[in-house]
Amino acid sequence: MQRTLGTCYYPEHWPETIWAEDAARMVAAGLTWVRIGEFAWSRLEPQPGVLQFDWLDRAIEVLGKAGLKVVLGTPTATPPRWMVTRHPDMFAIDAEGRVRGFGSRRHYCFSHPGYLEESKRITALFAERYGQNPYVAAWQTDNEYGCHDTILSYSDAARGAFQTWLQDQFHGDIAALNAAWGNVFWSMEYNAFDEVELPNLTVTEANPAHVLAFRRFSSDQVVAFNRVQVEIIRAHSKAPISHNYMGRITDFDHYKVGDDLEIATWDSYPLGFLEDRVGADAVHQRAYARQGDPDFQAFHHDLYRAVGRGRWWVMEQQPGPVNWAPYNPSPLPGMVRLWSWEAFAHGAEAVCYFRWRQAPFAQEQLHAGLLRPDSADAPAIEEARQVAAELAEAGTVEPAQAPVALLFDYDADWAWSTQPHGQGLSYFGLVFDVYRSLRRQGLSVDILRSETRDFSGYKLVLAPGLMHMPDELKQALATADAKVVYGPRSAARDHDFNIPTPLPPALPGLDVTVSRLESLRPDMPIAVAGGGQVTGYLEELEGSADVLMQTDAGVPIVMATGAQIYCGAWLDEAGFDALLQKVAGPAELTLRNLPEGVRIRQTATEEFWFNYGASTVETEAGSLPAAGVWRRLLD
Amino acid sequence: MQRTLGTCYYPEHWPETIWAEDAARMVAAGLTWVRIGEFAWSRLEPQPGVLQFDWLDRAIEVLGKAGLKVVLGTPTATPPRWMVTRHPDMFAIDAEGRVRGFGSRRHYCFSHPGYLEESKRITALFAERYGQNPYVAAWQTDNEYGCHDTILSYSDAARGAFQTWLQDQFHGDIAALNAAWGNVFWSMEYNAFDEVELPNLTVTEANPAHVLAFRRFSSDQVVAFNRVQVEIIRAHSKAPISHNYMGRITDFDHYKVGDDLEIATWDSYPLGFLEDRVGADAVHQRAYARQGDPDFQAFHHDLYRAVGRGRWWVMEQQPGPVNWAPYNPSPLPGMVRLWSWEAFAHGAEAVCYFRWRQAPFAQEQLHAGLLRPDSADAPAIEEARQVAAELAEAGTVEPAQAPVALLFDYDADWAWSTQPHGQGLSYFGLVFDVYRSLRRQGLSVDILRSETRDFSGYKLVLAPGLMHMPDELKQALATADAKVVYGPRSAARDHDFNIPTPLPPALPGLDVTVSRLESLRPDMPIAVAGGGQVTGYLEELEGSADVLMQTDAGVPIVMATGAQIYCGAWLDEAGFDALLQKVAGPAELTLRNLPEGVRIRQTATEEFWFNYGASTVETEAGSLPAAGVWRRLLD
Amino acid sequence: MQRTLGTCYYPEHWPETIWAEDAARMVAAGLTWVRIGEFAWSRLEPQPGVLQFDWLDRAIEVLGKAGLKVVLGTPTATPPRWMVTRHPDMFAIDAEGRVRGFGSRRHYCFSHPGYLEESKRITALFAERYGQNPYVAAWQTDNEYGCHDTILSYSDAARGAFQTWLQDQFHGDIAALNAAWGNVFWSMEYNAFDEVELPNLTVTEANPAHVLAFRRFSSDQVVAFNRVQVEIIRAHSKAPISHNYMGRITDFDHYKVGDDLEIATWDSYPLGFLEDRVGADAVHQRAYARQGDPDFQAFHHDLYRAVGRGRWWVMEQQPGPVNWAPYNPSPLPGMVRLWSWEAFAHGAEAVCYFRWRQAPFAQEQLHAGLLRPDSADAPAIEEARQVAAELAEAGTVEPAQAPVALLFDYDADWAWSTQPHGQGLSYFGLVFDVYRSLRRQGLSVDILRSETRDFSGYKLVLAPGLMHMPDELKQALATADAKVVYGPRSAARDHDFNIPTPLPPALPGLDVTVSRLESLRPDMPIAVAGGGQVTGYLEELEGSADVLMQTDAGVPIVMATGAQIYCGAWLDEAGFDALLQKVAGPAELTLRNLPEGVRIRQTATEEFWFNYGASTVETEAGSLPAAGVWRRLLD
After folding, report:
1. Which of C615, C518, C610 is nearest to C569 (CA)?
2. Do B329 and A519 lie within an 8 Å CB cutoff?
3. Is B517's CB within 8 Å of C360's CB?
4. Beta-galactosidase trimerisation domain: which residues (chains A, B, C) (predicted)?
């Protein structure tokens, strides 16, 4: 596999006279890809039906002729102002009932039929005109579905579509819905599907089954919206189709959207994410303020490798300070190179820097680019050039399966957010804590979706917090060759958010039952025998399985029979590390003791070392400077 | 008086085939009472006018025949979905103007005339059908008025009813309202009652007189709503009528609702309340996370003894982790027994555990019951059985007046919340701080309403923060045999929230005037001579009364003439303890120095000791384990 | 210039029988001025068109005859209830879309044409009736424009007026607007002015150019609203016209409103401001809880001296605890005197205490007055009497230009708030930090508006954070005799919020370019060589100018060529002090090392010393007690 670089460019932002020079500088910097078009609707159709695609024709021509491959984005994330005159009710409505209006971007409700038609129309115009264009080498649908909290809409259109969706799910049988949701509980029973409201603005919490159904519906609406574009493009073009997912967004099922795409891409803003989304404490945020979290990018790399079934890119790579986080520091020198190489180490086909030139106007004017607003080089372009040169040296690479698999499931995330039980508990947080522990100890990880049934080749599979586990998944894991770690909360609910009987987790071949569970204040951790702590969440376990770990007071927290291991607690770093150490030996995994901030990733032929720390660290393999990267060929 | 146990049961949640076994297990566990019906409307009237009461007939029959006494609840807290189609404007509107819609419970506005009629209709159906049923031994109206912040509604119906209420209060004289409220202040004068808006969404704070009137009106609406049900039930049944008040809700006058009932009951969730409502600091929350606050339940027990004029129950007793607090830990072993015995020590007739079996569906699926969702015993049922056995031993008990009375007044709470003057200051907080001090020093307390005029039998009466004191109350206290402690802020306002002249408190026989007052930052406490601190609130006192306590700088904070004592400061623990120690001797009260977490309560014949601590403590009477209970007969 | 005292009085609040006695007591206390009328509309026009001005005639007569000069306020801040029946859409709408209704004050939208007419009508009634009244010696328009966040309104009226305003700004050319705002960015281009919405409730942040334009429009609406009243009054009266600005409000351009007035006045609440608006940390708030911030009042004094072009008053001076801050402590004894003298030291013509008698009713019943609600003297009146006596001794005073000028600009404040880039960063905060540093080192300061072009007489001029600097201003500063300190962020944007090319600051005669910038977490300060720290915000500077200050790591933060100095960092106290120390010598300024809490202010003939500390401090000039004031004649 070739590893390539690229950038995001907006020809409509700049005088046509400088396009050619921009293109030449991109090529000179070693870039292969240029993404364009995704916000340009108002320039392509300035008034309804009045099309002006000629400038885009010319831009593609200029870029392509310079030797660049174009990724062409459909502009549906930014419908022009005239569109909202035509469809005044096309906006999403937030949970408080407020219209999310025109004036920025993503101002549409996924359930609005009129806007869906407009989306088809503009996509068809793109596909028909550029489907055979020799320079258009890839496509992007829309832009960052879900960014700015735009998946859940409480509009009339969404309510109607939700009712139809439910009718479909329950085959028109409202009694089945009432039974599945337990609506008898507070006399919440419906007599007809058109009585089902959206689960916002209820007096106290809505039925979790109702909320979860709405989350599933909302995700399905995104899948459907995206699929319509994909089908139109595919009818006219052989180029691969992608979407650029935004980091730390779990409001729709990325796998299901990905099923319709050839390539998954994601937008990686390590510093912005650390301030805004990682959920780390202030000490950690301070320590990595100029580097980003040492595991957050890697997690997404591994996730989108799964979403893209092996084919994935970083479509937007932070090249300097961003504009949108609470605080927006500059990265340490070398970090742009490190982030780029880390993506390749995890299997990326391409890394594209966002954006080519910093815009002097509008919302993102303080978002760095490879060039400054005055067209001078910004610091990142030098690091990009270095990566390009190093890539030329490094040659191609073959993907390899990791020894460890971690299941990550969007439905489980919605279930946890519907019912966290304790303040601050989230599925993403739990899975990421487990992922961190694997990485701290030097392991390379594959992320798998919950539909996976074949686990061959893995020594260890982890399924923490997977609240709903179909029987087929339970069977597949029970019969896998790998060691399997479940819990906490795995298999805790049935499909419709009810507690099943027999009580969870009810795993084949593992006699463990969660007889009661509790959430804990952050200031009341429970000491684990041998080190580490239970924090936040704890289950009472009973059954005949062996006790693998217990609290200082002798309460079992991890129980196992053979390769099947159930953990009934959310553990701190030392706790999860200890759990891994217990299972590593039997799983024939070798753990490493890495210095703080150092991470390793192996491909089939290479071992990469990355230092996210702000200063040089001593490792078993020598002295690794801040922002340092080692690439070593495996024997 | 007999002491009994019970539970809350939802036959509509379970197959009819297991009702008999459930009933038998309840009886076997020593339970007397079973409450049913209060959320079952959609099963009793699945469509408007279509009645299906036969299953409830059978449920009562099964439970009654098994030997249980039924408490039957009217289902008006959960009107079915078809109801909101029939009355689309029946919802409460919150202070931000948002409709509080269908999908959970308590989705009605107390001022909506249409829903009031529906409430009458369903209550009449219940009363007519079961008024003479031999197994229905008590009634409950609705469920937890005020839970989920449901008293204040800013709907059109509420505005109209408020205008009518004001017209009545001011005998149709709008000039009288303008004068009473001081509406001249910012040209807020009205020309007619239908010009008076609800006091929400004003540009800056509304007139406090306006706000207080709205709070009083809102409380009166609850009283009226409840009374309608009581009158209908009483016309058909001789069984006593109750309502289950929710802890730490002061948005309506519980005494006035209680005046229409035979029995006051309340719902006691010690762990949920500690996390959510007590208002304690994190250290306290941590220390009592598995036990609950040592005084919070006792305060409510004493309060509802007053509300029920002696007759009161715990209708819902937490039996394990709940689902609704920020964190939901399990109670220490023994706490369910302790909470039960504490209720009896304060005079409860019955303690009912909520709920019989944990529901596997809907909003409260993580709320523990006496049984697990799979019908196995949960830990609490064993403690319930132990209490049942101990009750059989202990026999009946006679109530006794406590030596100390503490006035608690809902109107004062509304006045403080209308005008706290300093962030975080509340009437409940002040009264509870005083109550804690009394309890820390071993005293049993009666809570009295502000309409009390006969204080005979009390050695000490306290009226902290009672912002409006009618002359008759002032006179009654001035002439009581007891020592009387007033302030801070007692008698600070007239009926319509004006500062009276002569300046407050203007108490007969006590020459003390509050010449100025201030609120204090939490970080600027003022040291009290001899120990303790003023925190949050301080009055400047002048007058000829004796200075009983003063600050280190010599500023008087407590002044007294004979038995009349005025305290012009909010004190910390040491401060209030010191104040009590000064008045205890003259009041002929003996104070005790109890260990942290230990509390005492005396009945006419018994002295109870409770250890809320998480470990064994040494007391003057021996070693008391965590969650320990002593019941000792007095000489 | 004569220095005088006064008070704010509400004859409509009190029985007419006590007016004469009140007036006599005012005169006896040494007061000259009495402000009346500004909230009295409902008493002057109790019903539409029904006028009752006779009582106001009599009140003016009584006060005037007693020897007081009347300041008469137009009552437009408090339209009566009948007004909102007549104009149901006259309310402002908040950014969340909620109507800001009747029931307090300032319940009008500046853009509502109907209310503007009503405002004209009532002003004309005032002007015609009292324009020639011998006792009406000054006027006030409305009351505290902008208090309670009332400048920005998102009403239909505001939207329409904004569209018209934009049409005017861009001469009817929508393409010019699109170009100026960079609306191409996210396809935000408009085809017509009536497509431009208000910039609230967008999905993510609105275009900063859009927001800034709305802020400018909103300010212009206030200027226009005020001008209408001024023109009417001026047509009938020769008395000077004022408006009482509220402290720490920057939502409209006070200079532009001031251009239409003879006198600027402001309302000074040192303790309330410290709790609510200064933005100090808790340690500082604790230290000055009873004194107020040592620089906040002085800053406003200097600001309103500029706004009033030399003529300014304190119209409302806090005389004891207020009612509206989170905490409302009493001032230290002596502070009312100190605050009064400090105003005079900065050039005030008058200081008026708010209010004469504490009102026992309505919203401000816990706001102290010179009298208590029972008409007894409150503590402040004694301090007022002392000031009156001291003023009689001190005689008149001549104004003098300060040696240092600090530019303060409302447009820059809106630009920063539109794009702070880092959490908590604000223009006011930056300018105030610089002001504090000047004052800590003993300097007297003039505040200048950004339209200033003549800087003669100043030794040092500072223009921190002035985001837009027209070329004429750059030229004027480059050629001034003074040392000039710019930055951070000075000249960072053009008029329409775009980053200019060449990159900022592009100052004539100073080769410094901000090549990149970052905002910093509060926990990641950067050490400055020689002491002090960069906090919150840092620019990367390049260019050939001399490096005046740098970080410990050698990164330049202050660069200079001759008298032109650019600072690219937000510094802490030690940092700004060090910067001043570097420029003081060349600027021929003598700095002093004042003790904590001590401040100095010089007039032409006097030097004042003030001790804001809570205890006595030793100074070079002797021992200065808490709340102490020295007035010394200069040689």
Report:
1. C518
2. yes
3. no
4. 402-589
How buried is A65 (Cβ within 10 angstroms: 0-12 exposed, 13-18 middle, 19+ buried)?
Answer: exposed
* DSSP code string of B264-278: EEEEE-HHHHHHHTS
Cα–Cα dist C347/C310, whole Å: 8
All structural domains of chain B, each given as residue ranges with its CATH number in brackets, are: 4-148+218-394 (3.20.20.80), 156-210 (no CATH), 404-584 (3.40.50.880), 603-633 (no CATH)
Question: CB of C422 within 8 Å of any CB in chain A?
Answer: yes
pLDDT for res B420:
98
Q: How far is A114 from chain C (nearest CA, A)?
A: 19
Chain C residue with Cα closest to A75: C187
A518/B328 CB distance under 8 A = yes
Q: Which one of A278, A365, A375, A377 makes the best mutation probe of the C interface by having the most chain C beta carbons within 10 Å?
A: A365
A567 among the known binding-site residues?
Answer: no
Put simply, the answer to whether C516 touches A42 (Cβ < 8 Å) is no
What is the per-residue pLDDT for C635?
A: 80
Contacts of B503 in chain C (CB under 8 A): 372-374
For residues B315 and B633, give the distance between their C-alpha atoms in angstroms, rounded to a whole number.
Answer: 27
Q: What are the chain C neighbours of A100 within 8 Å (beta carbons)?
A: 201-203
Catalytic sites of A, residue numbers: 144, 316
- Rounded to a whole number, what is the distance in Å from the CA of C113 to chain B's nearest CA? 20
pLDDT score, position C398: 83
Position C397 scores a pLDDT of 83
Residues A25-33: what's their mean pLDDT? 98
Query: What is the length of chain C?
Result: 635
pLDDT at A317 over 90: yes
Is residue B143 a contact partner of residue B38, using CB atoms and an 8 Å limit?
Answer: yes
Q: Is the pLDDT of residue A245 over 90?
A: yes
Mean pLDDT of the B72-84 span:
98
Judge whether B48 is closer than 8 Å to chain A, CB to CB: no
According to DSSP, residue B332 is labeled P
Q: Is C524 in contact with A98 (Cβ distance < 8 A)? A: no
Asked if residue B395 has pLDDT above 90, the reply is no
Question: pLDDT digits over B176-200, tens only?
Answer: 999 999 999 999 999 999 999 999 9
C-alpha distances in Å from residue A215, one per residue of A144, A168, A415, A418, C452:
18, 16, 9, 9, 58
- The band of A1, judged by pLDDT with boundaries at 50, 70 and 90, is confident
Q: How many Cβ contacts (< 8 angstroms) between chains B and C?
A: 168
Q: Give the separation between CA B412 and CA B420, rounded to whole angstroms.
A: 11
ipTM of the complex: 0.97
Task: Provide the whole-model pTM.
Answer: 0.98
Q: Is B144 an annotated catalytic residue?
A: yes
User: Strand, coil or helix: what is B377?
Assistant: strand
C-alpha–C-alpha distance, residues A406 and A404, integer Å = 7
The Cβ of residue B588 has, within 10 Å, a number of other Cβ atoms equal to: 10
Closest CB from C46, C363, C365 relative to B499: C365
Q: What is the spatial order of strands in the sheet that B546-550 belongs to?
A: B445-448, B404-407, B460-463, B483-486, B564-567, B556-561, B546-550
Q: What is the predicted pLDDT for the residue at A203? A: 98
pLDDT in tens, B461-515: 999 999 999 999 999 999 999 999 999 999 999 999 999 999 999 999 999 999 9
Residue of A nearest to B12 (CA): A184
CA A373 vs CA A6, A59, A360, A604, C368: distances in Å: 19, 20, 6, 41, 56
Chain C residues with CB-CB distance to A329 below 8 A: 518-521, 524
- Tens-place pLDDT, residues A366-424: 999 999 999 999 999 999 999 999 999 998 888 889 999 999 999 999 999 999 999 99
Q: Is the pLDDT of residue B399 over 90?
A: no
C-alpha to C-alpha distances, B119 to A603, B230, B236, B415, nearest whole angstrom: 69, 11, 16, 31
